[in-house]
Specification:
alpha/beta; TIM Barrel; 8-stranded parallel β-sheet; binds D-xylitol-5-phosphate; binds zinc ion
Length: 214
């Protein structure tokens, strides 16, 4: 699968309507929403009041990436948005299996995100329960950072685990994704690429989204 999920973090916050109209009209598959709490990551982005407004005008499935401690507390809020995918960090969940079950019970797809230093092997006993694994290819917290090359190795290890365990999980990559690396990422086994600054800084974001899918 070759899917693109533009990240709202790099959109123009002075005119979100215009950027969401662009996403709605584009070939983007999902809209990626980065929620930060200033505790799990050293930055704060936007919260549920903003997300409610965005959800009201976005026609693409919402891919919610929670960079927060205790993400399980917010399952009802994320469900209320009508989110398609709820991503929680492995590093933020002591009882990950329980959190994944609760996301599923709420009727959403469940994704687990790994920071760049967290080994893929830690997912061995949960991979069959996941709909998606989000590999961070930068340290979470900011847009516009440089892609970490070790991500390719992690994609290959994860793909092998998914096939061996008969898991249906998709592989999503987040951070530093641009036209120079998206082909290699798909070839390594990625299914969904998140891209923020590269898409929103482009003169023609819709054309970039189209190119990234090819
Ligand atoms: C970073 C976020 C990303 C971010 C990616 O913590 O999780 O989704 O928006 O931005 P770029 O594509 O600019 O690296
Ligand atoms: Zn993200």
């Amino acid at each position: 699968m070759r899917m693109i999920a533009p990240s709202l973090l790099s959109a123009n916050f002075k005119n979100l309507q215009a950027d969401i109209d662009m996403i709605n009209d584009s070939q983007a598959d999902w809209l990626h929403l980065d929620v930060m709490d200033g505790v799990f990551v050293p930055n704060i982005s936007f919260g549920f009041p903003v997300l409610e407004a965005v959800a009201g005008i976005c026609r693409k499935p919402l891919d919610v990436h929670l960079m927060i401690v205790e993400p399980q507390k917010f399952i009802p809020e994320v469900k209320h948005l009508g989110a398609y995918m709820m991503n929680v960090h492995y590093e933020a969940c002591t009882h990950l299996h329980r959190v994944i079950s609760e996301i599923h019970k709420a009727g959403m797809k469940a994704g687990v995100t790994l920071n760049p230093h967290t080994p893929v092997a830690l997912l061995e006993d949960i991979i069959q329960d996941l709909d998606l694994v989000l590999l961070m290819s930068v340290n979470p917290g900011f847009g516009g950072q440089t892609f970490i090359e070790n991500t390719y190795q992690k994609i290959r290890t994860l793909k092998e685990m998914i096939l061996r365990r008969g898991s249906q999980a998709l592989i999503e990559i987040d951070g530093g994704v641009c036209l120079d690396n998206c082909q290699a990422l798909y070839e390594a086994g990625a299914d969904v690429l998140v891209s923020g600054s590269f898409i929103f800084k482009a003169e023609d974001p819709k054309a970039i989204i189209e190119k990234m899918k090819k």
